[in-house]
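Readers of this paper often ask what the protein records in our data store actually look like. Below, we set out a record of this kind in full and without editing:
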Amino acid sequence: MYKLLFLLILSIPAYANEISISLYTDHLQEGRFHEDNQLVAWRGDRYFAATFINSYQQRTYAIGSYWEGGNRFAYGVNYGGVWGYCAESFRYGKVFNPDTCDQVLMPLVSPYVGYDGKDMTVKLLTMGSAVMVTVGFEL
């Protein structure tokens, strides 16, 4: 499963028209979370692929599609799948070791708002309890 997902992610940049990176990450809930997610994402006309370090310091991969509305002031939602989280991390209060847990494919729904400039975009997006600011550049 991991190899198939990795190959799909590698194919998206060939069709990309935008690359984005994260500038800032914060969490809306209390806890000791990784705040430097180092997101890199590619967007095409209908699809996206991304990789980042998740809140538990695990390399994570996402792939899916998106819906977007608005003009200069955009809003939308990314949806698809994300691989790299421990199943245990979604069970509130359960202690787990991110280095030895079973990573699973999870559904992804990530709403966002932003500004689309001529050659650059700035977005505020949510992923679970994390809020990220990203900047994107047209390719």
In short: The mean pLDDT is 81. The chain has one helix and eight strands.
